[in-house]
C-alpha cells in the first residue's frame, strides 16, 4: 500500500491553527503574569513577555513573510545545526599510539565546543568591561553596602516613627497587648540563651528575684537596651524601638515568680524595689 503525502501541504502553515497558537500563547502569558504579579517576581514577567513577543513575531514572520511556508526556516535551522555539530565519519586521524591493540584517534573537536569556548571568552571581555573598566554595574561588595545602607535607613525611619519614651518615668506595662507583643519578641530573640520560659540557659534565670544588673522595669529595660556585650548578650537598641524594649521588659517582669521547671539557680543579688509606689505596694511586692 502506498500513501501519498503532499509534502508541501504538510509544510503549509494553516492560518487558523496559527491564530489558535497565538491565542493560547497570549493566555498563557497572561496567566504567568498574574501569577508572578502575586509572587512579585519581575524577572518572570519580563521573561514571559519576551518569550511571547518572540513567538508571536515568529508566527507573523511565517505567515506574512514566508507566506505560510516553513521550509526556508527549517533549512536555516538545519544548516545552523550542521555548523555546530561534528561532521560525521572519517574525520578522526589515527595517531601513532597503539596500546594493547587499541588505536588512539585524534578526533576533531566538535564545533559546538569551540563556540562555547569562544562564548566564554566574549563573556569574560564583556564582564571585565562592565564591572572593572566602565564600572557600569556595582561589584558585590558595593551592592552589599548599598543594601545595608537601605536597611539602615528603613530602620531609622521605623525608629523615628515610633518615637522615644521617657526612660525616667518608665513603668511596666500590664495590658494584654503589650505583654503579648513582648512575649512574641522574647520567644523569637531571647530563648536561645534564656530558655522558652526564661528559666535560664547560658543567660541567667529571669523569673526569680535575683538580678545581676538589677530588677525592676528601669534596670531590666536598661540591660536589654544596652546588653552585656562582654558576657555575650548584645545591645538590643539597634533591633527594637524603645517601645518594643519596654514591652519585652514588661513581659520579662510578668514572669516573676512563675517558677519554671529546670530553672537555673539564682545569680546576682536579691532585688527589692527601692521606692515602691505607696498606692500599689502590694502589687509591686508580688511582682518583684
Ligand atoms: C547570646 C545569648 C543571649 C541572648 C540571645 C540574650 N541574652 Fe540576655 N543575657 C545573656 C547573658 C549571658 C546574660 C548575663 C550577663 C551577665 O552575666 O552579666 C544576660 C542577661 C540578661 C538580663 C539581665 C539579667 C540579670 O540577672 O540582671 C536580662 C534582663 C536579659 N538578659 C534579657 C534578655 C532579653 C529580653 C533578650 C532578648 C531580646 C536576651 N536577653 C537575649 C545572654 C543572652
Strand content: 5-15%
What integer is the average pLDDT? 83
- For the record, the count of structural domains works out to 3
The CATH homologous superfamily of the largest domain is termed: Cytochrome c-like domain
- Major beta sheet, specifics? 2 strands, antiparallel
Number of helices: 11
Query: Strand tally, please?
Result: 4
Backbone shape: elongated
CATH classification class of the largest domain:
Mainly Alpha
Secondary-structure arrangement, i.e. CATH architecture of the largest domain: Orthogonal Bundle
Ions, cofactors and other ligands present here are: heme C
Amino-to-carboxy terminus distance: 102 Å
In angstroms, what is the radius of gyration?
37 Å
Q: Residue ranges: pLDDT <50 for 5 or more in a row?
A: 7-11, 283-288
- The CATH topology of the largest domain: Cytochrome Bc1 Complex, Chain D, domain 2
Spatial sequence of strands, sheet with the most strands = 1-2
Structural class of the helix and strand makeup? mainly alpha
- Return the string of H and E elements: HHHHEEHHHHEHHEH
Q: Helical percent range?
A: 55-70%
Amino acid at each position: 500500500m502506498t500513501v501519498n503525502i503532499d509534502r508541501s501541504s504538510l509544510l503549509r502553515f494553516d492560518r487558523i491553527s496559527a491564530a489558535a497558537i497565538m491565542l493560547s500563547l497570549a493566555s498563557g502569558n497572561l496567566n504567568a503574569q498574574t501569577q508572578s504579579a502575586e509572587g512579585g517576581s519581575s524577572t518572570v514577567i519580563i521573561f514571559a513577555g519576551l518569550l511571547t513577543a518572540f513567538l508571536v513575531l515568529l508566527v507573523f514572520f511565517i505567515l506574512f513573510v514566508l507566506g505560510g511556508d516553513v521550509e526556508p526556516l527549517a533549512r536555516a535551522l538545519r544548516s545552523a545545526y550542521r555548523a555546530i555539530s561534528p561532521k560525521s565519519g572519517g574525520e578522526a586521524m589515527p595517531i601513532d599510539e597503539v596500546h594493547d591493540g587499541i588505536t588512539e584517534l585524534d578526533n576533531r573537536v566538535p564545533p559546538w565546543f569551540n563556540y562555547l569556548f569562544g562564548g566564554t571568552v566574549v563573556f569574560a571581555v564583556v564582564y571585565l568591561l562592565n564591572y572593572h573598566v566602565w564600572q557600569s554595574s556595582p561589584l558585590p561588595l558595593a551592592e552589599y553596602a548599598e543594601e545595608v545602607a537601605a536597611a539602615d535607613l528603613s530602620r531609622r525611619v521605623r525608629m523615628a516613627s515610633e518615637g522615644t519614651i521617657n526612660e525616667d518615668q518608665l513603668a511596666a506595662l500590664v495590658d494584654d497587648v503589650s505583654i503579648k507583643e513582648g512575649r512574641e519578641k522574647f520567644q523569637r530573640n531571647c530563648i536561645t540563651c534564656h530558655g522558652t520560659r526564661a528559666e535560664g540557659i547560658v543567660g541567667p534565670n529571669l523569673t526569680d528575684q535575683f538580678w545581676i544588673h538589677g530588677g525592676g522595669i528601669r534596670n531590666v529595660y536598661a540591660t536589654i537596651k544596652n546588653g552585656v556585650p562582654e558576657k555575650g548578650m548584645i545591645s538590643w537598641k539597634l533591633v527594637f524601638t524603645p517601645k518594643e524594649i519596654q514591652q519585652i521588659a514588661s513581659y520579662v517582669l510578668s514572669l516573676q515568680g512563675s517558677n519554671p521547671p529546670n530553672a537555673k539557680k539564682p545569680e546576682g543579688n536579691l532585688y527589692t524595689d527601692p521606692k515602691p509606689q505607696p498606692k500599689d505596694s502590694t502589687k509591686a511586692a508580688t511582682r518583684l
